[in-house]
Amino acid sequence: NTLKSSFNGTPTAIYFFIDTSLPMSDAIDRGVKPFLNSLLQVLPQNTNYAIAGFDSEIKLIKPFGENYSSQLNQLSAKGQRTEINRLGIIALEELAKKEEKNKLLILISDGEFEDTAYTIDEFIEKANLNNITILSLGYRDTVKNQGVTKPAINTQGSFWIADKITHQLPKNCTDEILKYISTPKLLSVDKGALPKSMNKTETFDLIVE
């Protein structure tokens, strides 16, 4: 005879950081938007996330703490210059302010960049200093491009490469991403071990530190 309760693990903050340079236009419409709309539907309830596009500047379309209401529809790729490293550091600084212990930056890009103010190694260093894991979704011809792969590999993250024609990510991509995010767990408690005042209780709140 057990008493069952569900709880969320370590709360997670995610910054979806999406390359909106012009070469990403077809990938965003046919690949990125459908994939993210699907992923957002299965995120654990305690996930705090922001969505932003970037090229030569950051365009925040969904701030942390705001309800999602199809803001991805605002996303369009028209930028003429891509500054992954400089703007990535700014995104990491914003993510680092969140109180959630588990922090992920999901970089969505073809990995090409023109900025010279900061290097990719400085971008990676900033992530590691703030205990932020980078997950990368690579589009177009990114297999040979370290702008997508290197940040993920060097922050204990992972990367996935979309098909160059269909822009579809591997089928297991969503499940693999969710492994980095807190998911609900089921706890079974022996009712006989509870105080008499609780022996008729069917639900209760449990706080796990």
Query: How many helical stretches?
Result: 5
Q: Roughly how many Å apart are the termini?
A: 26 Å
Q: Report the major sheet.
A: 6 strands, mixed
* Adjacency order of strands in the biggest sheet: 4-3-2-5-6-7
Mean pLDDT: 84
Shape: globular
Care to count the β-strands?
8
Strand content: 15-25%
**What are the segments in which pLDDT stays under 50 over at least 5 consecutive residues?**
1-7, 183-189, 203-209
Order of helices and strands: EEHEEHEHEHEHE
- The portion of residues assigned to helices is 25-40%
| Helix-and-strand structural type | alpha/beta
Radius of gyration: 19 Å
If you had to describe this structure to a student in words, what would you say it looks like?
Helix content is about 25%, strand content about 25%. Helix 2 packs parallel to helix 3 (about 120-130). It is of the alpha/beta class and about 210 residues long. A 6-stranded mixed sheet has the order 4-3-2-5-6-7, with helices on one face. Strands 1-8 form a two-stranded antiparallel sheet. The longest helix has 16 residues, at about 25-40. The chain starts with a strand and ends in a 19-residue tail after the last strand. Helix 3 links the parallel strand 5 (about 100-110) and strand 6. Mean pLDDT is about 85; it is low at about 1-5, about 185-190 and about 205-209. The chain contains 5 helices and 8 strands.
